[in-house]
Every structure is written in C-alpha cells, then in structure tokens.
User: Fold these one by one.
Assistant:
Number 1:
Amino acid sequence: MAAITASVFVGVSVDGFIARPNGEFDFLLEGGGEPHGYDEFMAGIDTLVIGRKTFESVLPYPKWPYGDKRVVVLSSRPIDFSRVRGGKVEQMEGDPAEIAAKLASSGARNVYVDGGITVQRFLQAGLIQRLTITRVPVLIGGGIPLFGALPGDVRLRHVATQAYASGLVKTEYQVLAKTG
C-alpha cells in the first residue's frame, strides 16, 4: 500500500491568522486577490481532508468549491450532506494516522489538508509533507492561528517564495522532520 502525500495550501493574515475569532475570513482577498497557484495546486490533488467547521463554512457558497474532487469531512458527529451540490463528500473519524491509513487503502495519493484544527492535528502527527502559506497584506490583530502548540520543532526546507502585485506573498516549504 502506497502512502499519501499530504499538503497544506492556506491563506493567512500577515500576523498569522486563518480566520477572525468568530471564524470569518472576510479579510482574505476576493478570489484569492489574483491567480497565485491554487488552481495548479488543486490540479494535482485527488482528495481533500477538511474539518467540520471548514465544511460548514463552504456550504453557503453558491457553487461547491471543490468540483468533483473527493472530499473527506472529519467529525465524530453525524453530518448532513444534503446541502452539498454536486460534490463527492464522505465522513471519517479517528486520529490522523488512522485517517491517513484509511485514505491510502482507498486509493488516495495526493491529499490537501485544510482547516485550522485539521492542519494542526496532521502536522502534530508528522503527516504533512508540504506547506504552502500565502500571506495576505493585512493585520487583523487576533483570531484563529494557523499553527497551534507543537510537542517539538518542525523543521522545514524553503522551496520557493513569490510576491504578487496585489501584495500576496506565497511561500512553499517541504516538511523535513518533527523533533521532540
């Protein structure tokens, strides 16, 4: 059985928040501000793993944002998928290692991990191989941080940084190892 490659592609305020304290991410630029690699990133993804809060935040969108990609929503409580229009959505629960094993055994290879708690849990478990963080030119002063407490350092190798006309700055890292 082949292992999955798990990646994160996320927008944050310059002060490191993925959302306001109430979960809103209205400070992110409409449509990403300008093309900054998201479409190319998504073209290489076969499965998305998102938390329940992220799932609930995209439900009101007029169009399902993930197209026909397989979307796995993590939750220990039952989820109503009746409002999903045209997506391939399923639910899983368990710790990140169990979820990664289930994904690998079901044929997933290139996985996009999204949502604050979900990213933090997979990173803490040593299951993220690639981080792409796009800083949005705004300070919001407080909110939901991208990274939470870690049991030790997570060593990264810088892959690339690109600045865009809108002020976005995208940096890609390869996750090398977790220590501690």
Number 2:
Amino acid sequence: MSSRPLTATTHAIVVEKPEAFAFGPTQFTFLQLQTEEGMDARPMSLATSPTRPHLEYAVRLSDSPYKRAFAALQPDDEVRVFGPIGDFVLHETRPAVLVAGGVGITPLKGMAEYAADKALSIPIRLVYSNRSEDEILYRRELEALETQNARFRVLHTLTRTTDDGWQGKTGRIDQKLLQEAARDLADPIYYVSGTPSMVVGTLRLLRGLGVPESDVEIEAFRGYE
C-alpha cells in the first residue's frame, strides 16, 4: 500500500488488488479501516480502472476518525475491501459526458483510464469543476489520458479562482458548458459524480437541456462534502 496527498485538502491511497477481484469501470466498494474508535467501513468509489494493477481511493480530508485514519495509513497497514457494488459503470458503446465536482472525479478518472487502456472508440468529454487550480485532483493523470486517448478531452472550470494566470473557464458548471461538452456527440450518456447538492444541480441543468433521465447516471458522495 502507498499513501499520498493529492492536494492540500485531499488524500489518496493505492492498495494491492486482491486476487480474482473484478469490477466494472467504475463501481464502489466498502473500505474498512482501523480507526481510533474501532473498525469502520465506508462506501468508497474506486478511483482507478479494472485494467490497472492496483486499487485506488481518494477522499477530501476532514476531522472525522475515519478520514484521519485514512490519511494516516502506512505501507504495512491492512485494509479490507468489500464489493464491488453499484451500477455506475461506463457503457462501452455510447459517447460519454463525465461531469465531476472535486473529489467526485474518482470514479470518472477510472472510466477515462478504462476507455484509454481498452482503446474504446467512443468519444469522452470530462467537465470538471474545482474551487481553485491547486485543488484540481489528478491533473497530471488526466493530461496523460488526453495524450493517450485522442477521443478524450477535459474541460476544467474553477468556481473561486482569483488567479490571473488561469486561462480556462470560471464559474459553476452551467448549461452552456454542458452543451459545449456534448457538442458533436451522438446520443451521449451523462455520468454525474460529486456531492448531493452538485449532483442535484447538474440534474436540473440536464433536465433543462431536454436530456432524458434514462441517459443520466449519478453517483452522489453523501457525507463527503
């Protein structure tokens, strides 16, 4: 196991993949840790593709016993993985618009890795919202995936940036940005991942654009705001 900060407020761990553990890109598991209050298991999206050799998880840090234990994990520590669970899984034959806020990027990063590793023919657009540039999780990894997969493109937007050097978009995800992401895509599926309020807000925007609910998959990170 390895452990590393992703940004000042987020942390990731990489765990050895159990033998014969198979999952779809990308479901979630329960991750059980030893905390100061005893054993605790929480639902946690897998932040990497089943095509990759390890399992990865990332959280936004807080002062909860579980998050403190997560950030303090050492290479020799043991965790337990239960799953996989859920139907938030990439459809391999339809164009995809991935929509993430903050740490909600985790399962969508895994989907993008899977599409690149499997050389899927579908176009994929990622709309990714963060507060500031230094809060962008997995920025280098996403740039590498854009290089690896010509059909994959990232559209960043920052909601609280004051950085004059930022050349990208600013403000919350809106209908215009979603329309730009879906431009030229035939019958895409939208995958929305983030806090419940972000997911609800995005669903409202998509409904306003006339996107049927059957074309939207959601993953809400309860308790991780």
Number 3:
Amino acid sequence: MAIRFYVGHGASGSSASMAAHVRGLIARGVDARAIDLPLKKAEAAVPAFRAIVPDGPAASGANGGAIAVGGQSYGGRVASLAAAEPDTDYAALVLFSFPLHPPGAPARAAERSAHFPAIRCPVLFLSGESDPFARIDLLRERARAIPDAQLVSYPRLGHTLRPVLDDALDRTARFLLAIG
C-alpha cells in the first residue's frame, strides 16, 4: 500500500467509532488507521494529533508511502488545522462531515475556515446537504479557499454519512490511491 491514512473521530466518538471507515478503506487498498483524539477545543487537540501522526517534509509510512489525514466532524477539523500548519507535509486531507459552524450559527463559518488557505495538500470534503453543522452553500464557498479541494455532497443527509458510507469510502479510496 502506497499511502497511509490516519483518521480521527467525531466529538462523541473514539477510534473504535471509526472502525467501519478503517475496515472499508483497507478493503479498498488503503492502509487506514483510526486514532484517538483528546476531546477539547479542536485547536488545542492539534499537538496531540501531531504527536500521533507523522508529519513534516520527511513524513512517510512504514512502507515509505505518503501520509494522508482526515476525520469525521471534530476529527476532520483537527486534521485540517494540523494540515494548515507550516511544517506539515501531508499528501492529502479527507473531511467527512466537516463542522463548518455550530448548528444555528452559520456566521461562525468564516472563523472555522480561516485556516483553509494555508492547506497545501489536495482535500476531499464529503458532506450531507442538510448538515446542521455545515450549510452546503457556505461549505461550497469556503472550500474554494483551498487551492486543490473537491466537495461531494449527498442530498437529504445531515451530519452522518452512514447511509452512503460505501459510496463515501469508494470516493475516498479513489482519491487517496490516485495521490499515493
């Protein structure tokens, strides 16, 4: 496997809650591993994320492959903040149900995406079009701040991708394997 993908969990989960993602990606040829994150403000969790996940110009997996990162909701926000730091060198970033703003507070989207222009790797967003944490029009607008980003949206879905997990993992695997 040429790419290793580290995936973080949502705010109400743990690495165990990402088991279906990991199993599904491994079955599709991606060396995927779930990580546990401290449950605190996303910005405060970045040092713990970086202590777990190899990064920097020499980041590579045990097999010499590239390192990609991502996560579900909170885990994706932490991964995106880590990917925006100047000394990280991740090959790709995958964001499942990115929490662009708290429910009912779309005005916070600018604050929650202020780091997007600093992300230097290709990014794949996968989001429900009815997600209360990411108004789809705002997510489309904010994603354009990332030089190499694509957004896949799912009609009638909220803050979960479970009903379309196979499709989301197919797209994630294609995205990651094309990079790695």
